[in-house]
Amino acid sequence: MVEVRAERKGELWICAVIVLTEGRESRYEVSVRPSDLERWSSGHDATAVEDLVSRSFDFLLEREPPDSILRSFDLSVIQRYYPEYDRLFRR
Questions:
Q1: pLDDT in tens, 46-82
Q2: Which residues of 30-66 are buried (b: 16+ CB within 10 A; e: fewer)?
Q3: Domain locations along the chain
Q4: Nearest Cα to Cα of residue 70 among 35, 34, 27
């Protein structure tokens, strides 16, 4: 299960993410830029940001265990590790 809470800080959205798997809780912080929303989301409000980050974590968790995911990162870094991310998420 993935829980995401987005808070706007200037132009950035900062998302607190909690992943619950097999009784364990992992926490992350993800920065989302306006350009990320233009590229991968259909909205610019907190709900759209939370949806994009939640779907992005589902994508990551299909490919690696929670302990392998960086604890703090910018959303755009995902495509560097997984080039298919851009193709799958581009709107």
A1: 999 999 999 999 999 999 999 999 999 999 999 999 9
A2: bbbeeebbebbbeeeeeebbbbbbbbbbeebeeeeeb
A3: 2-89
A4: 27
Structure tokens at 78: 């995902």
Q: Can you give the pTM of this predicted structure? A: 0.95
Q: What's the count of helices (H) and strands (E) in the chain, helices before strands?
A: 4, 4
Neighbouring residues of 38: CB distance < 8 A, sequence distance ≥ 6: none
- Side chain identity, residue 9: K
Please give the backbone phi and psi of residue 15, each rounded to the nearest 5 degrees, phi first: -110, 130
Within 13 Å and on the Cβ side, how many CA atoms surround 5?
Answer: 3
Q: Residue with structure tokens 């929303």?
A: 37
Contact, 29 vs 72, CB < 8 A? yes
d(CA 11, CA 33): 7
